[in-house]
Amino acid sequence: MRIQLKFHQDADAAERRRVLDELPRVERLFPGEDDPELEAFYVADLPDDEAATTLAELKRSKAVAFAEPEAERTLHLPEELKGR
Question: What's 64's domain CATH number?
């Protein structure tokens, strides 16, 4: 399961590092972005059997503004574009 999270603006680098170090596979949602708002977003890829516990821990963290499962998205093509 993939979990998206965003840090509070007032979470310092040490608080963020403590949270990120607990996640096995995590990356910035907007790599290379230096906007403070966008650089606070991350996505973690977790084994399904660990996801519920980790999500609950992230939601309890004072450094994290929000954490939620990443929504599954599919592309729906208009009929006129199908088969091209």
Answer: 3.30.70
